[in-house]
Amino acid sequence: MKKIAVVGSSGGNLYNLGGKDPEKMIDEIKVQLDSAGMKLEDVEFVGAKTSMDNKNDNVLASLFYLENGVLLSSEERKLPDINKEALEYDKKLAEKIEEGLIDGLIVMSCDPDGINKNVILAAAKKKIPIVGTGGTSMATISSMGANVISSSGTTGTTNRTRAVAAVTSLSKFWKIKYSPVIGSAKRDGVMEDKGVFSRINVRGVMMAAIPGFITMALVLAASKLPFLNGLNEIFDILIKALPVIIAALAAKQVSGLDEVGIVSGIVAGVLSVNGGIIGGMIGGILAGILCFYMIKLCFSYNFPATTANIVAGGISGLASGLVVYYFIAPIALWLGDGLRALIEMALNISPILAGGIAGLLIWPAIIGGVYHAAILPIVLLEMEKTGTSFLGAIDMTGLVMVSTGIMLANIVFPRQKSDRAIATPGFLINVFFGTFVEASYPFMFSDKLIMAGAMISGCLGGIVVGMYDLRGTAYVPSIFAPIMSNNAVGFAISMIISAGSAFLITSLANKISSKKNNS
Q: What angle (nearest 5°) sits at the alpha carbon of residue 293, between those of residues 289 and 297?
């Protein structure tokens, strides 16, 4: 097993590109080394509290080192004191290299003329391979006769891409089979990567994008005020931004490359705007997949990390975006308009029936996992055009307000005193944040009457939604939901009916349960 040492500092440019978090940076390197069957044998890394471009003798820093395989750090002290400590550590690491205990070096913004001179000279003498980043320092290392097999500047890199680039170069040098671990997760303490396609998760992207949609809804509500009607233009801009948000999130998720994936997604998203959020989703997924494979290809040909990032982040986003722009956008837009047209068709046939059925089934949908997989994306599709949604109104009245009514009943008329403590946080979160309907699950699952009451109450609220042709949204403070709808009075009535019905039925269920327990 090849043994690798990491040497360097948080540097100037590196500080802003991951160097200020040495633990995370070293951990990323270790993950990639483990995947290649190599071992992180030692670390000598000076981490400062500010960029070295602005360093002075008063800057605080720590020395990060490896002890029994665990990354540790010294106490924070002024940089000159830490540098002295690092110099002593450098001499010890140089001895390990001379003894043949280190097979390769990964260097990042190191100081080959000063603190790290001993290590670099020892590495040059033993001709062990060196890879790393930091334009000036890598040039100096090469001039010292060291065996530099790959070097790059720091600009445009990330912790992950630097680690992958370094381990790819070392693996090629030793002809070791290596598969980069990208977008990985820990399972039983082991890092695993199931592949780029396993990271495609439309529901996860939609959930992450909710703040963007809620922001749009807030702007729409504010624009209704006479003195803020100029916000209509802001609303139109935000609508156009939604596909970009979706694309950026999708590309980051699928590529597993953090900042590089985000850039790729933004480029693709800008070109996918004409396809709406479906176009943005497709563009982002394509960008993420292409970004993943392009960066692997670049590293396999020893592209510098900076160049690999530019190619992967820029070209993959451009190529994916052009595909959506010219071929997919019209189809994606047609699909989105078709789904919205189906909802409008149902409402035109019988709005009261459509609202009642939606309100009745909303609880089985969320309990069965259908809500987040199907209903929430449709809500966001509706909001994409108008900022409000029919199913969003059903969400607020049939879920949030029903849950609020159940919680309130268990505060006012609890079956047992301990229920009051359980119900109070759920009630407050539903009222002030418009979410956490799951708080009512313990009460619903323990009493069939409360479960039936939730469905009945949701149905009643849905009927009112259909009757007034309401549009709205959840995930906002319940007390503000009416003014963010298309009909504040009607929306308030629907909320009161849903919550009131749930409160009465739950209170009755609790009374019946209490009598049974006391008899």
A: 165
Q: Which residues are 46's β-sheet partners?
A: 9, 63
Question: Contact, 164 vs 182, CB < 8 A?
Answer: yes
Q: How far apart are CA 133 and CA 137, in angstroms?
A: 8
How far from chain centre, in Å, is Cα 382? 23
Residue 186 β-bridge partners: 191
Structural tokens at position 446: 């323990």
Burial of 165 (0-12, 13-18, 19+ CB in 10 A): buried
180: helix, coil or strand? Answer: coil
Q: Which segments of the chain have a pLDDT < 70?
A: 183-194, 519
CA distances from 303 to 107, 159, 167, 168, 354 (A): 17, 16, 13, 11, 58
Amino acid present at 479: I
Q: Amino acid letter at 175?
A: K
DSSP secondary structure code for residue 473 in this structure: -
- The pTM (predicted TM-score) of the whole model is 0.72
Tokens of 45: 């890394």
User: Angle at which helices 401-412 and 488-518 pack, to 10 degrees?
Assistant: 40
Residue in the block written with tokens 């990032």? 309
Q: Is 216 helix (H, G, I), strand (E, B) or coil?
A: helix
Cα angle 313, 314, 317 (rounded to 5 degrees) comes to 85
pLDDT tens digits, 126-180: 999 999 888 788 889 999 999 999 888 777 788 888 899 999 999 999 999 998 8
Contacts 24+ apart (CB under 8 A), 367-376: 367/441, 372/203, 372/206, 372/207, 373/203, 376/203, 376/206, 376/207
Q: Which of 252, 254, 234 is nearest to 244 (CA)?
A: 252
